[in-house]
Amino acid sequence: MSVPVPYQDSTYDKRPSIPVAGRHAGFRGEPAWERLAAAIAGSRVTVIDCYPGVDVTAVIDRVRLGSPQARVLDIEDEAALPIAQIDAMIAGNLTDDRVFGVMSHLELADFYDAAELDRVAAQVEAADGPVVLVGWGAALVPVPADLVVLADLPRWEIQQRQRAGMPNWRCANGDEDVLRKYKRGFFVEWRIADRHKRPLLRRIDLLLDTTASIDEAVLVPGEAVRAGLRQATTRPFRVVPFFDPGVWGGQWMRQVCGLDADTPNFAWCFDCVPEENSLLLDIGEVSVEIPAINLVHAHPEELLGARTHARFGPEFPIRFDFLDTMNGGNLSLQVHPLTGYIQDQFGMHYTQDESYYLLDATDDAVVYLGLRTGTDPDQMMAELRDAQGGQVQFEADRYVNTFPARKHDHFLIPAGTVHCSGSNAMVLEISATPFIFTFKMWDWGRVGLDGLPRPINIDHAEANIRWDRDSEWTAANLVDRVEEVARGEGWVEERTGLHELEFIEVRRHWFTAPVPHDTAGTVNVLNLVEGAEAIVESPSGAFEPFVVHYAETFIVPAAVGPYTIRPYGRAEGQRCATVKAFVRGTQV
Predict the structure, then answer these.
(1) Contact assessment for residue 543 and residue 565, using Cβ atoms and an 8 Å cutoff
(2) Residue by residue, what is the 3-state secondary structure of 433-493?
(3) What average pLDDT does the segment 415-424 reach?
(4) pLDDT for the residue 9
(5) What is the pLDDT of residue 555?
(6) 228, 428, 416, 440: which is closest to 331 by C-alpha?
(7) What is the pLDDT of residue 57?
(8) Which is more confident, 135 or 451?
(9) In terms of residue numbers, what domain contains 123?
(10) CA angle, 412 as apex, 406 and 413 as ends, to 5°?
(11) Is the pLDDT assigned to residue 100 strictly greater than 80?
């Protein structure tokens, strides 16, 4: 079966960037390690603090090569607690579960011996020449630093390195199941690392980007990065999308987004998950890649809005991603935790409500959603457990509703609702951000791409299924609830969701002419779901016109205020559409 390819003349941008204007626009891209050596030569004490996942040994080797006169100390070897002691400290966070843990509230200083940090400080004070402190936690050493460098790394790159055999921080678990490595990062390391990094972003002199490789490192002024982050809050922008294969993956994204032809399929695209994605800043002659979450850390109110920030803190609560099953398979049958459960069990303060917006679908596509009226909970759970044990194949159609899925349909999925996308669909998933909390009940007898059984979480699922969401309730509450809410010359605005139990509001605009929008003080996340191209403009000229292409997700920060969207280029004269999500009740 052929895969439909809409808008073949559209150009999906896989490496979108933000140009940094002002005095930094003239920055020249001299070799990173030579520039760093020159900066070290002019400093008595240099701190190079490394996000966990950065190759500290490689950084130290390059520093020693370029600065042979300096004394280089690996702060992790000098002062970190033994990993066995750290393991005991975080055992309650990691749990025995393969996937799920409990959010850590530790600080990075808890992983270090304070007396050893003082000993290192004494060595620095006694040294005759320049000293360079390197490692995650280098900034913890209690000495004044003349030069502070942050070696940062986005989470998607950390995951790639872990899949290739990189262990967790100071661990010997390179061959461990990647899900367990990810769990240690998600629940412990990245939480602690982000708390440590937030104040550093305000004071770093240089940022070192080793995302591509140590040989292709990029070094830019910290003030240029801060300028780029400030400027990002004044205009629409995109994060760098991250595409990933999967056992159920399809072929739509490969063709529409122009992806690698040698990869068997692409299942996911994280197109707006700042915790995972990166942000590209064009600073003069170089592009620096940093974690997109840095923007949330640096400017939460300008990006999110005062009310959204007050509600969620420095977190980006809205997630847009793609789920491609076109010529692929069904997603796993799953359910997401209720709010009380995710708080009590995992330490998260809000849950993963979500929805499926159909970017595309073939005539036979369906969505599994809600339970068939009359379902016996005990019987269904018994059959799921028998299927997990390999005795039978679970007959999902006996227990779960299936609804025909057509292009531009919108299915709402509040937490506690059993669901999954069937094959031959291209889903734009609009959801709250806690994306790891998916309880799989049935995975159609598959193993993962690594050959290991995919995790099934029947006990967690049973504790969260809302059995009252039967056929009638689901059809009335969750399937394609569209209502017109406004119209103007050349445009119509519709409310398509989400459900009243969910905190995200979604509006769809159909347009052949400019549509007026206003952030009204809260962050907007949009996707061009129909039309080859559109252009986002400021009525007052506050930002440069911003062109988006079909299927691209973009963010409009709360600080932007009024903006317009109209068909552009090859789409002029066409009827286009966007979907827009924001946090309900946070507009001013």
Answers:
(1) no
(2) CCCCCCEEEECCCCECCCCCECCCCHHHHHCCCCCCCCHHHHHHHCECCCEEEEEECCEEE
(3) 98
(4) 65
(5) 98
(6) 440
(7) 98
(8) 135
(9) 18-236+274-283
(10) 125
(11) yes
Q: Report d(CA 112, CA 6) in Å as an integer.
A: 54
Q: Indicate the burial class of 92 (C-beta count within 10 angstroms; 0-12, 13-18, 19 or more).
A: exposed
Is the predicted pLDDT of residue 50 greater than 70, yes or no?
yes
Please report the pLDDT score of residue 434 as a whole number.
73
Q: Is residue 129 part of a domain?
A: yes
For residue 30, the domain's CATH number is 3.40.50.300
Q: State which of 228, 255, 283 marks the end of a domain.
A: 283
Q: Residue written as tokens 């979450």?
A: 293
Give the chain's mean pLDDT: 95
Among the three residues 283, 303, 322, which one is the final residue of a domain in this structure? Answer: 283
CA 501, CA 496: separation in Å to the nearest integer? 14
Backbone angles phi, psi at 211, to 5 degrees: -60, -45
Is 80 exceeded by the pLDDT of residue 307?
Answer: yes
From CA 164, how far away is CA 213, in angstroms rounded?
A: 14
d(CA 351, CA 415) in angstroms, rounded, equals 7
**pTM score:** 0.96
Helix (H) or strand (E) holding 375: none
Say how many domains are in the chain: 2
Nearest Cα to 9, choosing from 587, 569, 579, 522?
Answer: 569
Within a domain: 54:
yes
Task: Identify the helix (H) or strand (E) that includes residue 394.
Answer: none
Lowest average pLDDT, out of 2-16, 120-134, 420-434, 445-459, goes to 2-16
Query: In the chain, what's the furthest Cα-to-Cα distance?
Result: 80
pLDDT in tens, 337-352: 999 999 999 999 999 9
35 Cβ neighbours under 8 A, 6+ residues apart = 219
Q: How far apart are CA 274 and CA 97, in angstroms?
A: 26
The alpha-helical segments, DSSP class H, found in 29-126 are: 32-41, 56-66, 75-79, 83-94, 114-126
DSSP state of 522: S
Q: What is the DSSP letter of 374?
A: T
pLDDT of residue 26: 86
CA 407, 375, 389 angle in degrees (round to 5)?
90
Q: What is the distance of C-alpha 369 from the center of its chain?
A: 25
Q: Is residue 119 part of a domain?
A: yes
Check if the beta carbon of residue 169 is closer than 8 Å to that of residue 193.
no
Residue 391 pLDDT: 78
In whole angstroms, what is the distance from residue 543 CA to residue 557 CA? Answer: 12
pLDDT given for residue 291 in this prediction: 98
CA–chain centroid gap for 35, Å, is 32
Is residue 179 assigned to a domain? Answer: yes
Residue 553 belongs to a domain with what CATH number? Answer: 2.60.120.10
In angstroms, the CA 208 to CA 210 distance is 6
Contacts of 192 (CB under 8 A, 6+ apart): 104, 106, 107, 108, 111
Per the structure block, which two tokens stand in for 83? 């990993």
HSE-CB for 367 with a 13 A CA cutoff: 30
* Tokens read off for 570: 């090859």
